[in-house]
Amino acid sequence: MSNETRRILLVEDNDDIREAVAAYLERDYWVTSVSDGRDALNEFHAHHFDLIILDLMLPEVSGEEVCRVVRDTSDVPIIMLTAKGSIEDRIIGLELGADDYLVKPFSPRELVARTRALFRRAHSESEPQREVLEFGELTIDVSGHKVLVNGEEIILTASEFKLLTTLSRYPGRVYSRMELVEKVLGYDFEGYERTIDSHVKNLRAKIGDNPRDPKWLHTVHGVGYRFEDPTKVSTENA
Description:
By secondary structure, this protein is an alpha/beta fold. The protein has helices at residues 15-25, 37-46, 63-73, 87-96, 108-126, 158-168, 177-185, 193-207, 230-237; strands at 7-11, 30-34, 51-55, 78-82, 100-103, 132-135, 138-141, 146-149, 152-154, 174-176, 217-220, 224-227.
């Protein structure tokens, strides 16, 4: 897919920011710009988009609610924009299912770079790999970009899918949070180690992995995470 055919929904109520960002993005992408949450949902339901850039603070319908509605039916990548600077505030969007975030004020060039990184990840994940990973009730169809638990398909975001495939390809290997930032998000960024925790939390909830007694996603305290194959663990312990 060429850049020109990729469609981006830009949702930002500040006229100056919206116009500046749109001007940068329109050099490479097809952009629809709206200024409130209600119009954002109308556009989302009416058209296909390859990426949504979403401000948290919106009139009519909040950015959080827009994100929830989108995630109910779609795994389209979402970049969240927020004026709040603390790590705790920033990860709210990630816990709602956003793939990335930027804190205002930001450079439109950085937003374009984040956009390109998300599209590169989506492209690499869509390349045919003829790979299916099975771990008991959990099946990861890499080539089909599907995850099933007990035969039921689970909808994951692009970041959640990348995180799960990264960990599951090497059961037993411990990944630090920074390693996962680089492999899953594609670049290093201050404060992003904490966001991996948010993605793991969301992933566990979706696949039904109890953090207090996990089957697959195990926390290595002070380091990061590892994936375990419960069928092999059971065999080894037998």
